């Protein structure tokens, strides 16, 4: 069902690298926005998973990043770009179980090599662009069911 | 089953958000990997874990979990409890291990 909005809604949140204590803030705010707009529950659930994983990757690996979103009547587009180390081999990074996270991050229960696969599984379109030494851009689209 | 029933049957200690005891528990999920919980837990699950850091609160909130049961008497820092209280996430603690907790929950919820 198409969303009852007159015009697309956009917004963005800053994400600070290394800031584990506030991790999830951007995803939670986006989720609240989607709840407020009466977006389909399954879409909200998928969006929450995908954005939190992306947000965590920025916090774990990058100096800083940004989550931006565009909500239209028929889909949501979410972009996460960061100033991070970049991904050398995207195909390898997409493999479930592959992770380069340091040991202390793994001890917190992250770095299981599920982040990128979770993002892909929970979005209808998924794209990663990355330049080593510059950063990573993740683009995800979630369509509303018809 | 309500979260309060589980608290009573497993003799859990309620650390935060008493209002959440009214939550309907639909199932349970046991994991210490946060991405696993993000990916595979379901709305209304009670989550059994030994993790005690800030991110568990965001996970519980984003996934609409009924509550978090922290096992093995692991201490939870006051700042984490305050955050959970402000985010309306119910944290329960137990001296039971994850295995014992899961076994009891399975009997109650299967």
What is the structure about, briefly put?
Helices cover 34% and strands 28% of the residues of chain A. Chain A is of the alpha+beta class.
How many domains in all of chain B? 1
Instruction: Please report the number of helical segments of chain A.
Output: 5
Name of the level-1 CATH class of chain A? Alpha Beta
Q: For the record, what CATH class of chain B applies?
A: Alpha Beta
Question: Can you describe this structure?
Answer:
The complex is a heterodimer of chains A (about 150) and B (about 110). In chain A, helix 1 (about 25-35) packs antiparallel against helix 2 and helix 2 packs antiparallel against helix 5 (about 115-120). Chain A has five helices and five strands; from the N terminus they run βααββαααββ. Chain A has a single domain (about 10-145), classed as 2-Layer Sandwich (Heat Shock Protein 90). The mean pLDDT of chain A is about 95. Helices cover about 35% and strands about 30% of the residues of chain A. Chain A has helices at about 25-35, 40-60, 90-95, 105, 115-120, and strands spanning about 10-15, 65-70, 75-85, 125-130, 135-145. Chain A has about 150 residues and is α+β, with helices and mostly antiparallel strands. Chain B is an alpha/beta fold and about 110 residues long. Chain B has a single domain (about 5-110), classed as HprK N-terminal domain-like (Udp-n-acetylmuramoylalanyl-d-glutamate--2,6- Diaminopimelate Ligase, Chain: A, domain 1), CATH 3.40.1390. Chain B has five helices and five strands. Chain B has helices at about 5-10, 35-40, 55-60, 80-85, 100-110, and strands at about 15, 25-30, 45-50, 65-70, 90-95. Chain B has a five-stranded mixed β-sheet, with helices on one face. The interface between A and B is medium-sized, with 24 and 20 residues.
